[in-house]
Amino acid sequence: MIAGDAPRWVYYFNGFSVFWYLHLDCLDGKQARRTKSSSPLGQLFDHGCDALSVHLILTVIAATLSIGISWKAVVGSLGVMIPWQLAHWEEYHTGMLFYGNKYWGITEANYLLVMLHSMTGYFGPEMWRADVAAMLGIKLPVTLLVNDCLLMFIAFFAISYSLAAFYRVLNVDQVTLPPQERGHKALGRGNAIGHLISLQTVNTLGGIMLFLCLKTPIVAPAVNAIFGIIYAQQSTKLIIDHMSKEPFSVLLWPLVAMAIVCLNSLLNIVPFEVSCWVVAVFVVTGYLAYIVQNINEICRYLGINCLTLKHLEAAPK
Questions:
Q1: Which letter, b or e, does each residue of 212-247 get, where b requires 16 or more Cβ atoms within 10 Å of its Cβ?
Q2: What is the pLDDT of residues 181-216, one digit of tens each?
Q3: Torsion angles phi and psi, residue 145, rounded to 5
Q4: Does the predicted TM-score (pTM) go above 0.85?
Q5: Per-residue pLDDT at 312
Q6: How far is CA 259 from CA 46, 195, 255, in A?
Q7: How far is CA 217 from CA 106, 185, 212, 250, in A?
Q8: How confident is the model over 105-139, as pLDDT tens digits?
Q9: Checking phi first, is residue 315 left (phi over 0); if not, alpha (psi -120 to 50) or beta?
Q10: Exposure string (b/e) for 184-205, b if CB count within 10 Å is 16 or more?
């Protein structure tokens, strides 16, 4: 569960974890270049693990900010997950990966998370439930909490970044892309819009599932697992198709899995809790099979190992 207050040390540990996650995420590329082991597999692991961790990090920060299982958590999560995915959608169509703008990016966002967790550990989670009007000694027409202000910041970033990404993708000149970047990709405005609609179908179904579990909080772990893993899987496929310069399309079976959960909540064929946990097990199994298959294919094609380094042959004298 992600509702209620935790011991203070938990918040400090969360901040510590995000800090080291950020720095290790930045160091893997340097280590690969140092050991002369840079490869597309490393890029897949880097961005694929990021895609898998996005929803987990957002779930943890929702608990820290005393948002818990609520509509605020749903809006806040989608406000981060959609722009992150749009960055890779943009990379597929333009060859350029942008996280944020020149003033605010993924590094600053992670440092903000470290600060929020640490502040919560020091002041206590009740600080996020404080009434802004009472703090400032003013009257407001609505109740505005401190965590509401953070949500408004996330919404502003999500909207501004999304509009900028739309503009860049829809106005890119595909002819100027080098042939090695175009490859066999499905490019052009029509394809870009089609890809965007299919990706947002995934996020829409995920958002519906998150709203459904507000009435049944006990299934929140299963629903978060379903959406978080499917989000990571579809994002990973987008990344793989970009690396291999192949046409992109979303995987259909995860969409069917989420649609089953949503339809069952209306038709009540089986208890909602049962459908969520069964689908969660199915999704986790499918995700693991998909990832292992792609890792093995990349390793065979490049002639490399997955988690170990092959000895470099000495150059002839």
A1: bbeebeebbbbbbbbbbbbbbbbbbbbbbbbbeeee
A2: 788 888 888 899 999 999 999 999 999 998 888 888
A3: -95, 165
A4: yes
A5: 57
A6: 29, 19, 6
A7: 30, 42, 9, 29
A8: 778 888 989 999 999 999 988 888 888 888 888 88
A9: beta
A10: ebbbeeebbeebbebbeebbeb
